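Input sequence (99 aa), recorded before submission:
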Amino acid sequence: MQNYDKYEKNEHGVPQLPKGHAGRLLVCLAAIDYLERPSVVTISDFTGIHRALIDKAVVALNDQFMTSIVKDGAVFRIVAWGDILSAEGVRKLLTIHFK
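Predicted structure, C-alpha cell format:
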C-alpha cells in the first residue's frame, strides 16, 4: 500500500488516484463497504470520484472482479465479494488511507 502514499489525499484522507488507475475501482468498493448509505452522491463526496463515474465503476467491479453490487433505490449494497477480491484486502484501504 506504500505506493498510494505518493498521491494527494482529499479532506477524508482518500488518495486521489489518476483516471484509469485500477485503484479507483477499489476505492469505490471500499467506500461502498464503509459508508452508511453509499449513494452516488455520498460515494463521490467521500472519494472525489466524479458522480458520473460511480455507476460505471460498479459495473466494472461486477464485470471485472466478479463482485455482486446492487443498487436498492439510490443506495448501493454489496451482495457478494466474489472470488477475486477479499473484503479484508479492500478494507485495508480504509484502515490505511481513510481514517
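Checked by second reader. The helical segments are 23-34, 40-47, 51-64, 87-98.
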